[in-house]
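DATA SHEET
Item: assembly model
Revision: 1
Owner: S.N.
Input lines:
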Amino acid sequence: MEMTELREELIESIEAHYEKRELSEIKLILSELNPADIAEILEDFPDNQRLLFFRLLSKEDAADTFVELDPDIQESLIHKISDTELREVLDELYIDDAVDIIEEMPATLVKRILKNTDSETRRSINALLKYPDDSAGSIMTPEFVDLKKGMTVEDAFKRIRRTGVDKETIYTCYVTDESRHLLGVTTVKELLIHDYDDIIEDFMETNVIYVNTLDDQELAAQQLQKYDFLALPVVDMEERLVGIITVDDAFDVIQEENTEDIQKMNAMLPTEKTYLKTSVFETWKSRFPWLLLLMVSATFTGSIITGFEEKLKALTILTAFIPMLMDTGGNSGGQASVTIIRAMSLGEVGFRDYFRVIWKEIRVGFYCGLSLAAVNFIKIWVVDKTLFKNDEITLLVDLAICLTLVIEIVFAKFIGCSLPMLAKKIGFDPAVMSSPFITTIVDAISLLVFFGISSAVIPGLS
Amino acid sequence: MEMTELREELIESIEAHYEKRELSEIKLILSELNPADIAEILEDFPDNQRLLFFRLLSKEDAADTFVELDPDIQESLIHKISDTELREVLDELYIDDAVDIIEEMPATLVKRILKNTDSETRRSINALLKYPDDSAGSIMTPEFVDLKKGMTVEDAFKRIRRTGVDKETIYTCYVTDESRHLLGVTTVKELLIHDYDDIIEDFMETNVIYVNTLDDQELAAQQLQKYDFLALPVVDMEERLVGIITVDDAFDVIQEENTEDIQKMNAMLPTEKTYLKTSVFETWKSRFPWLLLLMVSATFTGSIITGFEEKLKALTILTAFIPMLMDTGGNSGGQASVTIIRAMSLGEVGFRDYFRVIWKEIRVGFYCGLSLAAVNFIKIWVVDKTLFKNDEITLLVDLAICLTLVIEIVFAKFIGCSLPMLAKKIGFDPAVMSSPFITTIVDAISLLVFFGISSAVIPGLS
């Protein structure tokens, strides 16, 4: 909240200066802000003012701010700036950021961007663009500090001082041989601890943890988090070091993947843009397919009711308990599925734990069912029968409802934990096997159990 | 999958060496692993073997591995090791890690742990223990590199070399005055770029972004991510620098908060342990309260049906559409609520966007409703009426169902986006205003709309 207020104050003050044409004041304000904040502020201004303010930024700030802007704003800025300005921005960008930007641009702009980079950068960008979406290769940067094993600490620092300015991180240094195979890794902290004439080979860490260019970006992010690294090396098929993934990119990957999982878990197709930037039509497109599928599935549940229609006419009070039984079953199954999906995505649970998980969920389901049934039994007897004097309720009706609860919850927990694990086993995304989908299945099962038990237990319904 | 296989191979080979009492071989295997991996392997062995293997680790590895172990395993290890061994582990720990461990231990062990730390560390630990759970202060570490503004680059490197070994990160250095007020910040990268006799004050960044000890840890993590920092300074009420939060801790906070949000969004109380470590009873405890609350709420939905009982008897086919209408309403509302909760937790949407969000959701709801109603209208007419020759279905019945769909979905989207925003506004956690809760409310509204429209439109029901 404070942040927003601060930003609004800044925007007002910039507007005031703008009206008085005090551009140097605006320049001063912007120069004191972090690029992430400058970007947020620029996004609040119309195109022409934004361009004007963007041109007030230092070369370095301009590039760093550019990276933080929304793709559509980046696009409109590129359209308006000259080739020289564009080249200056591109010169300052890290290659992985340049790739991120290019991936969002229309083909004509991509051409113009590539035309304005030097040939080496262009080659690197083109190489990175070839990696599949969501692969480790697609988020790595080829700019890292590489050292040779025979170097002394002094050599290493010289090399870092000479080449480090343009690297996204200099703190983790990789030791490679002539054919770029990864031999070891060390850090600037290690270098600072050792004497100037110590040889890198003598203290570098040789058990290097790395990922492959084609590994999933989520795996890379998880490894980085697990080992508390600032950067993770990425090797190609021939085990040659081709890039690194830095912790800030891993952080973004984790947040993206979390958002994607949450969307899938709740019956939506993932969208990449932020909520307010997604158009009504795009939002509709991400939500309609699942709603349709689930609606059609739910009509099967309806036909179960139709099949039982005659008996429901004989004892209409049963209808009144359908929502409660359906909701409770759905919620129970949803709890299990969401828990398992999350545990799998954090790497806590794998298919090897299948039977352990099922056995646990069945027990949890049994206890949940039993405790809810107990509450429900008393509630039906005291409130519905005694208080509201509903004569249709008999001991057997009450029992049938509560027995249904126990059985359906055990079923719900079983299905809720099984489906995501099986989905993953056969190569599907477990996140779609979540609450809404489970609910639809559990609904049908709950009704079948309810009508089955009622028919068996309540005289006059069989 | 590969990782798991690798780990299992390692465990088998350690077991084989253990049977032949080849402890030096085991020592060699362990010494080549990363502490995070050693911890995973140790957790697979029984207490006595674990202690034996733990004692094979180097001092530094022992401490780093200890941090990665589960709290209950840490506890049993502390019980078994001598005071000397405990002191060695504690000496190597970063203070924030020591605090994390202490927070999970029973009081008697805490005493023993504190007794085995030097008085300065003990003071720091006690100070950190006082910060509220989930505050920035509770996850910070007081060990950081502080410089004075008059220092040269050479002085700075000398200081880092002398004091840096024990710091969790040395890459971000903070410039403070005599009363520990934060004057500026610089990085080792900056230091390496500058000449040895440059003065820190001349190039340090003075616009420092920081958080307060009492700020939410999630805010701190978000700031760190937004600005791509490796560490974020934390100041006390008097604006004195008291600690820093490192990126690896921020990473963990984000994952924890995501898990917590996902649990709350799906009607569970948050649990801190991983899935397989949570007992059946604890899992039951986290799931039962919400199931109970939602079950009781759903009985109100049931009583809406009871109130309409007589009319349902006259036209039983309506009952068959209740599951479809309830599920679709619930899913639509759930989509909206989850989207908004996530957007709020990522800081993309705030209460200032309230009307913009509602207006968007109403339109999305209208289009979703319209498209689903169209599909449904045709399906009822072609499948239910023509194919299955259900005579109860008339044009007006079909219309009543489809009109209900449109209205309920608009309502569901409106409620789904409103409740989380309002909850946050009045200080509640928006995540609990999620699918299951929204479903229950939308269920009741859907039925009221359905019965209302049916009564109005279908002759013989009014």
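QC remark: The first helix of chain B runs from residue 2 to 19.
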